[in-house]
Amino acid sequence: MDLMLHSAFAEVATLLMLAAVVGFAGILLRQPLIVSFIAVGIMAGPSMLDVVHAEAQIDLLSELGIAVLLFLVGIKLDIKLIRSLGAVALVTGLGQVAFTAGIGFLLGLAMGLEAVTSLYVAVALTFSSTIIIVKLLSDKREIDSLHGQIALGFLIVQDLVVVLAMIVLSTVGIGGRADGGGVAEIAMVLLAGVALVGLVILFVRYVANPLSARLAHAPELLVIFAIAQATVFATVADVIGLGKELGGLLAGVSLASTPYRETISARLAPLRDFLLLFFFISLGSTLDLALLGNSLREALVFSAFVLIGNPLIVLAIMGAMGYRRRTGFLAGLTVAQISEFSLIFISMGLALGHVGEQALGLVTLVGLITIAVSVYMITYSHWLYEHVGRHLSIFERAGTPREPKGNAGASQAAADVLIFGMGRFGTAMALRLQRRGFGVIGVDFDPRAIARATSLGLRAEYGDATDPEFIASLPLEQAQWVVSTVPRHPTGLSHEDSRHTLMQIVRSTPFRGQVAVASHNARETDELLARGADTVMEPFQDAADRAVDLISGAPPTQRTPIPPITPEDRGDAGD
Predict the structure, then answer these.
(1) Are 255 and 76 in contact (CB under 8 A)?
(2) 339, 345, 348, 349: CA torsion to nearest 10
(3) C-alpha to C-alpha distance for 295 and 346, rounded to whole angstroms
(4) pLDDT tens profile 52-98
(5) CA 542, 547, 550: angle at the middle one, nearest 5?
(6) Model pTM above 0.85
(7) Three-class DSSP category at 462
(8) Which residues contact 481 (CB under 8 A, 6 or more apart)?
């Protein structure tokens, strides 16, 4: 017994070390951990190193990982958030799911797959990875952009489809069991499911908020309770026949309306990633490399469809709704991969006996290909658009009526100063310039920033500082200054500096004024001046100089007098 425990412990330690090494290599290649984890499973499986023997322990950790993953999905499904979904997220999300599933099903049949297998694979192709998309958009600082917000709307819609798919799959699984199932048993299970949902509703209504408020005094206890909630609900749902996945999801929904859901989600995310490692190891260790090789042709066809077809589907739907082709293209790239849910969905079908191991291998191979490639597509999305954007005009309606605007005609009206980046610094600068009689147009790619600037009486326009078509539409010929207050984000994956891109684009237009950009250190300042900036602003240094002048009582050095600052001048519009 001691030897077995020692062997299991040593095996898990070996897998963790292997995961760390492979994961580090994946980071160097800018790949998400999902790809690395599946690779670890394949390497540790019987086809290569053959180090996975503690199946019971790894399966237990794998099931815990799935329960926690679906718990975190459920905790994000706040009813208020679902109600707030815009038409574009709902229509595009459902449209993408429907078209992807339909075309994927026909592709499967055309390649000789059985109807049931084709259906499973087609549904699996509709799910995109929330973890990967949010991580990449956050790293690129595009999570608050218009296409980023629409992409988040897609994910919520897809999460709802995941819920429905798992409910249907669980119900079908009951009826298709070897012992016959029977209509009466299905009815009893559904009745028990309704009772479980009723219990969740009562818990949300009367227990969730007061209980979580008490537990929040000890954050560690709140996390333990959340894990207990996920595992208990998963166990109950599994006992009544609905499956652990649905139980974990309902557990998350039961805490989705509490004010502590973000805290719970943030604290459980590392645990989810750790436990999911064992799901992917369990998955990869069961795959035969020869089986993957036999599915290579089908995997390449499905991968091409996901990488090219999915973005085109989104682009076509958004174009029909009145969005610019650039917005549709950038949003569409976020669905150019399948997700961890696709693998879980196929695994459920395998457990129910609906599909064989070949289907699991096929979807896993599609996942590896699409996730690996889509990471680079999303990372270099602006570069891709520069090369293919001119060929996508058929996807854009005249006038693009659904694109958010600031003050009507802002981009056509003459202006003395164009400011890119309407955060605190940019908005405060625009307000002061406007008070001194300058004509100012503010530009930002966050619709909320545009709304705030407009509410302060500024002329503002939605747009991206790296979009040549948009910049060409601005009144550059009359402008005296182009100002960028957008900081560099060196932690991003793409390392693209929008200030350099903006200066390059502006200098290629009829603009004959001066360019000013914000910098936060001396090295950046020298680099920006070398790139052609006429003036480089260092907000922190300038603020420090001003503070010293005020404290010392000395007159401002080399400064023009600053008028009295009013609450409107402060322009508190976010970072």
Answers:
(1) no
(2) -130
(3) 15
(4) 777 778 888 888 888 888 788 778 765 555 555 567 778 888 888 89
(5) 130
(6) no
(7) strand
(8) 416, 417, 418, 513, 514, 515, 516
